[in-house]
Structures are given as structure tokens and as C-alpha cells.
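Internal tracking record. Fields below are filled automatically when a chain is submitted to the structure queue. Please do not edit lines marked as system-generated. If the sequence contains nonstandard residues, flag them in the REMARKS field before resubmitting.
Queue: standard
Priority: normal
Entity type: single polypeptide chain
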Amino acid sequence: FFNKHNDDIISMDFDKNKGIFATGELGPKPVIYLWNASDMEEVGCLKGGIIKGVEVLRFSPDGTKIVAICIDDNHMVVVFDVLT
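SYSTEM-GENERATED OUTPUT FOLLOWS
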């Protein structure tokens, strides 16, 4: 199991080309972890700009970006570069 999160995981996406999962958590300063499906090793940690929790996560079709939609009152949308 991937055990790096400190709060409930409420969103997930998978980039099948790279074999990378992205999981987003609930909380006042939520984090998105990127981790390898084969060995559960962390390959990235995305934070900043995310408020209250990550409601939705999606990799771009080419896997170079990930979009997060937050649970805040305005449903903030944050786009991160994925450097894996």
C-alpha cells in the first residue's frame, strides 16, 4: 500500500503510459502524491495552491500535466507540471 498521505484520499487518477498514480487528499493543506504502480515508490509530491482538498485529479493525455479541482467555495482549478 502507498502510505504517505496524512488525511483521507478523496481523488485518484492513473497515467497508464507511465504507470504512475496520482492521489489527492482532504485537509487544510492537502497534498497530491505521484507514485509508481509497480513498487508503490513516491515519484513526486505536489502542493501549493490547493485548498481544503483535492476533489478531482486528471492527467493530461500526454502525461505532462495534472489538473486538480479543489473543494474550496470557488472550486479552484490548479494545473501542475508533472516531471516524472
